[in-house]
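Appendix B, record 7
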Amino acid sequence: MADQSFIDWPFFAPHNRDHFAALKAWCGENDAALHAESGDVDADCRRLVRLLGDAGWLRHAVPAAYGGASEALDVRNLCLTRQSLAYHAGLADFAFAMQGLGTGAISLFGTEAVKQNYLPRVAAGEMIAGFALSEAKAGSDVAAMETTARRVAGGWVINGEKTWISNGTIADVLTVFAHSGEAPGARGISAFVLPTATEGFSVVERIDVIAPHPLATIRFEDCFVPDDHLIGEAGQGFKIAMATLDVFRSTVGAAALGFARRATDEALDRAVNRKLFGAPLGDLQLTQAAIADMALGNDASALLIYRAAWAKDSGQPRVTREAAMAKLHATDTAQQTIDKAVQLFGGAGVVSGNMVERLYREIRALRIYEGASEVQKVVIARAALAAAQAREK
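Structure tokens (predicted):
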């Protein structure tokens, strides 16, 4: 079992510790169900969403007024949930995360009617959510977005394509970002709630990746959404997207930490039980150096993740810098930790189905989605430069 001493750090309140203890116990009891695979990733993801909904864990993805567990989104509990689920099964973490990210903008900025209509069903696991921001020519460069939203009587008509959309093949409701024309570039983007049953919506193609997830390219052809499905105000979509990522970007780091802690435990078990030259593998100084790096990386990541989560939960309006640091360090360091674990397993580490091999495939995407590592460096640098310029004045 992974080192859990971090839960006693001062970042956490009693309700966070209670949540972590309950989730840890539940994951242990349901480990087989979390890992069960049918060969159909869509069906597996739907089953996991229902499993998490029935157990009450998805209540942490929405506010209490709409079936959630706390008055506002509790970022520390979101991080603890992702870390715990990722430790056991990557797809279970994905299923939880997308329920939160897919409706995060609705929770923060949606109309009351929309919140009442969608959030309780997402919390119950009865409806699957998605977040449709990326396009073929607009990943990190959001201003290059080509999907459009045109105002018509009673609402908006959306046209365009999105790609790399998580839950694209199975979502019931999407948060969609589109150019609505209020201003050039990112200042003219708006956010909308779009049920996938809307006429004109289609899945263009499934995207197969090294760690299977329900990823797709999707298309909107004259998709009508009513006025109350506009999230926030027209032209505020970029700010809404960034505010949503302020909440959920730290949780990506937490998922990476869950993967890293599992890789560390697998490596420790290997070091203790694998004999090499008549002695445990762990007796070798090179093995000890690798394990020291893993332990150091895990704790450093945890400190950054839970600092960002604590700051957000404590009322800091924006934690863009803190969340960027948490995601950057945790995802990059987890990649290194898992690579070291694979190396300690030798040939067994690259055999399909071995836990460290699975982790090796799972971690890679986290360094790209919700802002690639390079984007996080830009965010951090800009914040540091802005602070320096402010001091000069």
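Remarks on this record: Residues 237-273 form the longest helix (37 residues). Residues 236 and 249 are 19 Å apart (CA to CA).
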